[in-house]
Amino acid sequence: MRRSLFAATAVFVLAAPALLAQQPAADGPYKVLQRAKVGGEGGTDYIYADVDGRRIYITRNTVRAVPATETAPARDAIPGRVSVFNIETLALIGEIPGTAGNGATVDSKSGHGFSSDHPDVAMWDTKSMTLIKKIPADSGFGPDGILADGYNQQVYVFSHPTKSAGVFDAKDGKFLGQIDLGGVPEQGVADGKGTLYVVMQDGEGSVTKVDVKTMKATAHFPFGDKGGSCNGLALDAKNHILFAACGASGGLQPAVIGANGQAQPQRQLPKPQMVILSADDGHIITTLPLAGSSDGAAFNPSTMEAFSAHGNGTLTIVKENSPKDFVVEQNLDTMNGARTLTLDTKTGHVFVMSVERGPAPPPVAGGGRQGQAPVIPGSFTILMIGK
């Protein structure tokens, strides 16, 4: 997602009252095992677990310098970087300077890491944690979500403006071209056998199926009124089942005339839910309610559970009892703003992240949009979740 974690948190706080009907269940197998206040400044988006390398990678974007005022001290500029943490202890291992962006990923075979920096994709060495180079893509390309596929050692970077996936060779970083996805892409997942699936954020919501060998889309699976504002996608590769985490469903809210006499645009009805569909032909198997608007999903084949993280501070766990039987196993309280997640398939631990915020500013005179609550310095926190 293009917005940073820090910028997006206030949006979800305002949206939370609409989700009160889906209060988290108190009981369930999962709990927060650890809260590591790791600090550091700079907005972020995705969190990535390198299961083989036993590390967690988080991009941290540049913080601009701010001069002192009568009420606040000056703030020095902080450069963008990728922060690297021990996946077991959450201790900071080091940082990769000269890059930032929305997300990071690692190709284990080559030992190369990549981040969806702007405007170019960054490539770095995982052992020395040093930047190797910046890789330009086609004009207009806007790096956002990112995925490394071990099947062909290629990295896919998803671009909102071009509605495409940029393809990069993980061995040498060469830009190989773009895949037309037919919509605004968010999270992508690979089956490890040559097929890529990408969830579309725009319109009614859909999934695009891609043949990575030909770099062509082979199918589009629309959700109709079942989903919209879809940001998370997970895959049960064994049973060929997709889990699309969507923030809205039920179609569009009719256009209305506002108090100023102006027509208000149509908006997607807020009804977060998980759309569960066949990865083969796209037929929708069922839908289940989510506890909030998702920006990330994952599937654990060892436990047959799908996870969806939400900006209102909840995590929904969906249990796959069989390829035709799915239930919401638990809605867990996490941390407000913790809207993206990553999964360590070795331990079964799920990781989310967020910041603490101070008091919200007073309402704007005349009914203008209220500013967001300021981030408390040093409050950036990683949560480890497990059984």
Description:
This protein is an all-beta fold. The chain contains one helix and 30 strands. Strands 1-30-29-28 form a four-stranded antiparallel sheet, with no helix packed on it. About 45% of the residues are buried. The two termini are about 30 Å apart. It has a single domain, classed as 7 Propeller (Methylamine Dehydrogenase, Chain H). It has one helix at about 5-15; strands at about 30-35, 45-50, 55-60, 80-85, 90-95, 105, 110-115, 120-125, 130-135, 145-150, 155-160, 165-170, 175-180, 185-190, 195-200, 205-210, 215-220, 230-235, 240-255, 255, 265, 265-280, 285-290, 295-300, 305-310, 315-320, 325-335, 340-345, 350-355, 380-385. The protein is globular.
Q: Brief description of this entry?
A:
The chain has 1 helix and 30 strands. It has one helix at 5-15, and strands at 31-37, 47-50, 55-60, 81-86, 92-97, 104-107, 112-115, 121-125, 130-135, 143-149, 154-159, 164-169, 175-180, 185-190, 195-200, 206-211, 216-222, 228-236, 241-253, 256-257, 263-264, 267-278, 284-289, 294-300, 305-310, 314-322, 325-333, 341-344, 349-354, 381-386. Strands 1-30-29-28 form a 4-stranded antiparallel beta sheet, with no helix packed on it.
